[in-house]
């Protein structure tokens, strides 16, 4: 997934306010989780990132490959096929190495990313 929306650019920032969760109840179970706790956030889902219950702010994530997650993230949209093509290109670029971690498995994308437009569809 690609996480965005931190106004500070550090990965820890937010807008200065929080709002309540509206958690999904109809996600399919993740086939890789025998406990049934994790659910599938499908490719194309747009959901709120958070730091725990009812801590939604400005950070969100775009899912470019089905992901097994706890159902703790409010889904509020989906990415269309053109957007998924863009996400695929970003993901294919890899993760930017840092001085502390020259081969990271999580972190900022190696390719620069800037969201310049989002369309609302009904």
UniProtKB/TrEMBL annotation:
Region ranges (Disordered): 1-35
The keyword Coiled coil is annotated on this UniProt entry: no
Lineage: superkingdom: Bacteria
Coiled coil: none
Domain PPIase cyclophilin-type: 1-120
Keyword Transcription: no
InterPro entries the UniProt entry points to: Cyclophilin-like_dom_sf (IPR029000), Cyclophilin-type_PPIase_dom (IPR002130), Cyclophilin_A-like (IPR044666)
Keywords: Isomerase
MF terms in GO: peptidyl-prolyl cis-trans isomerase activity
Role, per record: PPIases accelerate the folding of proteins. It catalyzes the cis-trans isomerization of proline imidic peptide bonds in oligopeptides.
Name this protein carries in UniProt: Peptidyl-prolyl cis-trans isomerase B (Cyclophilin B)
Taxonomic source organism: Micromonospora olivasterospora
Lineage: Bacteria, Bacillati, Actinomycetota, Actinomycetes, Micromonosporales
């Amino acid at each position: 997934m690609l996480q965005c929306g931190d106004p500070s650019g550090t990965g820890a920032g937010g807008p200065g306010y929080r709002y309540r969760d509206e958690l999904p109840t109809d996600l399919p179970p993740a086939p890789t989780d025998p406990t049934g706790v994790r659910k599938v956030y499908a490719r194309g889902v747009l959901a709120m990132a958070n730091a725990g219950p009812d801590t939604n702010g400005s950070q969100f994530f775009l899912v470019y490959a089905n992901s097994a997650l706890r159902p703790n993230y409010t889904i509020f949209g989906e990415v269309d096929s053109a957007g998924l093509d863009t996400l695929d290109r970003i993901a294919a670029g890899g993760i930017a190495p840092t001085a502390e971690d020259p081969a990271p498995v999580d972190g900022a994308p190696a390719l620069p990313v800037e969201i310049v437009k989002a369309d609302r569809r009904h």
